[in-house]
Hints:
This protein is of the alpha+beta class. The protein has helices at 40-54, 78-86, 167-183, 209-223, and strands at residues 69-70, 95-104, 107-115, 119-129, 132-142, 200-201, 227-238, 241-250, 253-264, 267-277. 19% of the residues lie in helices and 31% in strands.
Amino acid sequence: MRSTYRSxxxxxxxxxxxxISMAAPNSVTYAHTEDEKLTTxxxxxxxxxxxxxxxxxxxxxxxNPDKYTQHxxxxxxxxxxxxxxxxALPAGSxxxxxxRVFQDGDYVFAHxxxxxxxxxxxxxxxxxxxxxxxxxxxxxxxxxxxxxxxGNTMIDGPTEPTNQTKTEENKALVRSFVDDILVNGRMxxxxxxxxxxxxIQHNPQIGNGLSxxxxxxEAMAKQGVTMKYDTIHKVLGEGxxxxxxxxxxxxxxxxxxxxxxxxEDGKIAEHWDTIETxxxxxxxxxxxGKFGF
Length: 293
């Protein structure tokens, strides 16, 4: 049986997410502790995302106006495409709270609570080149109206990376997990990736632990819901946090899966995710594809 373990993300949302605004500058905040030190590029990403809400113009300078590849398929390429998407946003409606931000080489990836044409949770990935943002990917899901069976939301939990020296080790562990369990369904290996039933789950449909997972899988099977991972497109990490970007199908529709894992003592300890339906190619506003890493 292939791809039986999977965070079951119902109500996947395919929606727009622009990243610039041209109004006057405003202050920018980020939900991190005073002890957390962000890199310059992390700060630039947080400020750029917050500009969706504040209308700040200064953060937009980090985007390369001559080379900006957009992978959100609802937005046209370049700054002109971003501006056009913003024009459809009702004034004063946007809210942006970036909860987590990490960096892996030239890539900065963020986990954000949005109100953008309605409440959404999103992951964003930005690629820097020569100090400027030149490429962007994202994945958005409608925010559920209640916590999951264990009382967890899609964004709560630890935010700061630790064990920076183990980044590559943790990335390898998570890649193996996704490949073994989600892509190839090697369920005999499942227990080896976890510390017993100690597993915190933020998917809105699944409770904590492998026991919570089992209950969710049973419910999914009864509903006839099918899900399949086919390809791992990217693995990014900082310390004990690892993000995977995968492609597959959910309920028969082409789907993008973004999964964020926290690793503890060589085991997977916590999980957040979003899933988004990939629109039909006829509806794309750019031809860069959802993935293209």
